[in-house]
Amino acid sequence: MNSNKLKNQKMKRIAVAILAISFFLAPSAVSFAGQNPAGSSYDSVDPFIGTDKGGNTFPGATLPFGMIQWSPDTAPDGWYSYDGKSIRGFSLTHLSGAGCPVYADVPILPWTSDVKENPAQQPKTYTLPFSHTDSAGNKLEEAHPGYYSIRFPSGIRVELTTTKRTGIGRFTFPEGVSKTLIFNAGGSAMVDDPKRTTDNDSVELLDQNTLVGTVHSGGFCYIPGDYTIYFVAKLKTPYASAGTWDDKSVTPNGTKASGHKAGAYVTFAPGTPSEVLLKVAVSFVSIDNAISNLAAEDPGWDFNDVREKARREWNERFDRVRVEGGTKDQRTMFYTGLYHMLIAPNIFSDVNGDYTGFDSKVRRLGGSAQYANYSDWDIYRGVVQLHAWLFPKESSDMMESLVRDAEQMGSLPRWPVANDVTEVMGGDSPTILLSSAYAFGARSFDAKSALAFSLKSAASTETGPHGYQERRFGDEYRTLGYVPSELDVISVSRTLEYANSDFAISQFAKELGDEQDSQRLLRSSQNWKNVFDPSIGWMHPRLRDGKFIDGFDLVKLLPYRYPGDTASQLGFEEGNTFQYTWMVPFDYAGLFRLMGGRDEAIKKLDPFFTELRAWGKPYFNVENEPDFVAPYAYDFAGAPWKTQQVMSRVVSQTFSTAPSGTPGNDDLGATSGVYVWGALGVFPAIPGLGGLTIGTPMFDRATIRLGNDATFDISRSGKGIYVHSASLDGKPYDSTWISLDQLKKSGSTLHFNMAETPNRNWATSPGSLPPSFGEDSTNH
Fold first, then answer.
1. Are 131 and 87 in contact (CB under 8 A)?
2. If exposure means fewest CB atoms within 10 Å of the residue's CB, which of 276, 278, 662, 673 is most exposed?
3. pLDDT cut 70: percent of the chain above it
4. Treating both helix axes as pointing N-terminal to C-terminal, what angle do 392-409 and 429-439 enclose, rounded to 10 degrees?
């Protein structure tokens, strides 16, 4: 052994010792400081975070805003649960983190025996038991952005990777077994229910290498709303035999099948290679377009090449936000959160520009793309702002897509899935998406039409598909100034949502020069006051005659929204008065005045954060969107050190790198956004306004490359979670609000000097507070 080798080994041992010491000396997650771990941002992502305990994310392969999400399902409802015991197939479409099942179209399952029992009638027969590790602790399952693989105890290995609209799978079978692939065209999460639609799913074997099909599904959250998706599957190796099934029977050697639960299977001849390559593509327009999508995006059979291109595309996205410092776990949670925020909305148009509109007509675009799947009630709190800030071109296309939807349907769709409205959640959230995207830099869409539809939503009483109304009880809201309790079990939360929308539209109108409508809607945004009861100091359901309802128990949180629904109080959707009262971030000054002043508001806020994941209790609930902004209320109250304290608890105590590490449904990246913004130390608190409230930065440095190619550099020095002082572009900065207009086009730097004890004087004067917009607010 030569001296150089001995020297190298000695250096390695020293390096390992240093790493070990640094690990044990690293500060806790609460301290927001540490060593920058090795590995790229891509390698930091763990798609298994959120796949357990209600996070409802999926671990499979997809690209940013991709049409296809090829991922395993452990349950008939199309979800993957980390503690699941078997996989029913690898389906082509998913919503990440949604609270209701939908999509999971065309589960594909490798199989090693004959298909005798009908999969439509015996679905449990056709599943594969799986485990995450083998008996020796070796990983059997692996997931990265754009790639997924698993090795089953039977010896079968599945690897998946994708382009925007296509996927390629590598199915490796053990030697000496039958090799079959099962295509369950009728196996969507919401099965093609004959009570909901008369359309049949269908599948057809075109030749010994090609299979195509049509799927009808929908019913998101078990309400009306349908879509049709088309798929093509191509095999590199021709199959030797095949069969089909319908709702009633299996047909060996069949080449066509239709029904509410139709499907097909193909079997390869003995002696064919153990590795089976399969390419798939989808379209919401036609089978021919699915075939064209496949030809355009993946004409070859190079699995590794597609995987590498997927890795590069994700890396380009992650490089928009480069962080330094922090612990390995903090980086993992941050980049996994960013990953989940970039999965949806999803591209809905084909490579030739075709898409199916809300009127079921096929249209063709040139130079832009159509998008679908907007969980608007969730993502308006923080996701849409990040999209617009970092990716204004794609965000503009997303907003233009909503405008097209409105043109075809007559009004803006709430919580649209594919090309149909679902009307999930109460409020008027699409208007906030449009105004907030515009405020954060997405300007390449028809903003005038977007404003016109937003103004229409604030005044319309029209009824659309499935009885849809953009603002239910809108007449009462406009005439009374609130939604009456006897008409609506979520009357208070709906009133607050409408007030937030009115404010966002008012800012949108102001930006576009419509001062009259801006002032009118700014006034109506004050309707939140009509459901605030000064006698109890909280929001309170109110009857049409103006009286607040009797029996409103603030201790037991009675009455419940529904009998036995202890998670929701009457008047509130998925929450209670303690959680919703803080949902007026555009006029916190007005709220605090009604509470008796800022000090009294702080007295209410302090016990509110006793718990951080509280359903059915008078405490903060990070698991649900209305509370996302509440920790930043302290900024508006002149106590920013309390925001810093609470947010450090939220990110360190409610998130983790475990599969259960996302607190509650991720809701298309909304909950992940709490962590991402919290780690950056800023938050887009006010809907429709281009600005950020300030919290506490986690990383030593975060360099954000904005859509205009300028950079925003957020850095910190010193230990601890508390901001003692700050500077913007080298000048002292004494405010917890930063307008995007303050950022230089050449790039800006926000630096924080941190400490382990709070500075109760920094950013506490009236002029240092974030703006409030109300008739009695002096800080605008």
1. no
2. 276
3. 93
4. 150
Domain count, the chain: 2
> What pairing do the DSSP bridges indicate for beta strands 147-151 and 737-739?
unpaired
User: Which one of 657, 674, 705 terminates a domain?
Assistant: 705
Q: CA 643, CA 648: separation in Å to the nearest integer?
A: 8
Which amino acid, 387? H
Q: Residues 740, 440: contact at Cβ < 8 Å?
A: yes
d(CA 31, CA 721): 6
Least confident segment among 9-13, 255-259, 451-455, 471-475: 9-13
Q: Which two tokens stand for residue 66?
A: 């991709």
528-586: per-residue pLDDT in tens?
999 999 999 999 999 999 999 999 999 999 999 999 899 999 999 999 999 999 999 99
Q: Is 369 domain-assigned?
A: yes
Residues 396 and 298 in one domain: no
Whole-number Cα distances in Å, 206 to 92, 185, 354:
20, 15, 24
What 3-state DSSP class applies to 691?
strand
Peptide bond preceding 345: is omega within 30 degrees of 0, i.e. cis? yes
Residue 496 in domain = yes
Q: What is the pLDDT of residues 612-666, one digit of tens each?
A: 999 999 999 999 999 999 999 999 999 999 999 999 999 999 999 999 999 999 9
Give the per-residue pLDDT at 197.
Answer: 59
Predicted confidence (pLDDT) per residue in 255-272, tens digit: 999 999 999 999 999 999
519 with 631, same domain: the answer is: yes
Asked whether residue 203 falls in the same domain as residue 110, the answer is: yes
- Tokens representing 506 are 């008012």
Q: What is the pLDDT of residue 585?
A: 98
Q: Are residues 309 and 345 in the same domain?
A: no
Q: How far is CA 130 from CA 74, 111, 119, 396, 596, in A?
A: 10, 14, 20, 42, 59
Which domain-ending residue is among 678, 705, 732? 705
Torsion angle of the four alpha carbons 657, 662, 667, 671, in this order, in degrees rounded to the nearest 10: -100
The predicted-structure confidence for 189-218, as pLDDT tens digits, reads as follows 987 665 555 678 999 999 999 999 999 999
Instruction: Please give the structure tokens belonging to residue 21.
Output: 């010491």
More confident residue, 462 or 699: 699
Burial class of residue 607 in the structure, from the number of CB atoms within 10 Å of its CB (0-12 exposed, 13-18 middle, 19+ buried):
exposed
Residues 645, 616 within the same domain? yes
Distance CA 242, CA 183 (A): 11
Task: Select from 283, 390, 310, 394 the least CA-distant residue to 344.
Answer: 394
Q: Answer whether 63's CB lies under 8 Å from 50's CB.
A: no
Whether the predicted pLDDT of 452 surpasses 70: yes
Comparing CA positions, the residue from 285, 347, 339, 345 lying closest to residue 316 is: 339
State the pLDDT at residue 708.
87
In a domain, 740, yes or no: no
CATH for 488: 1.20.1610.10
Is residue 605 situated within a structural domain?
Answer: yes
Cβ contacts of 617 within 8 Å, gap of 6 or more: 557, 611
Domain CATH for 162: 2.70.98.10
Domain boundaries, position 287: 45-318
Are 667 and 700 members of one domain? yes
Q: What is the pLDDT of residue 464?
A: 84
Residues 80 and 197 in one domain: yes
The whole-angstrom separation of Cα 342 and Cα 320 is 12
- Bridge-based pairing of strands 256-259 and 226-235 is unpaired
| pLDDT greater than 60 at residue 244 | yes
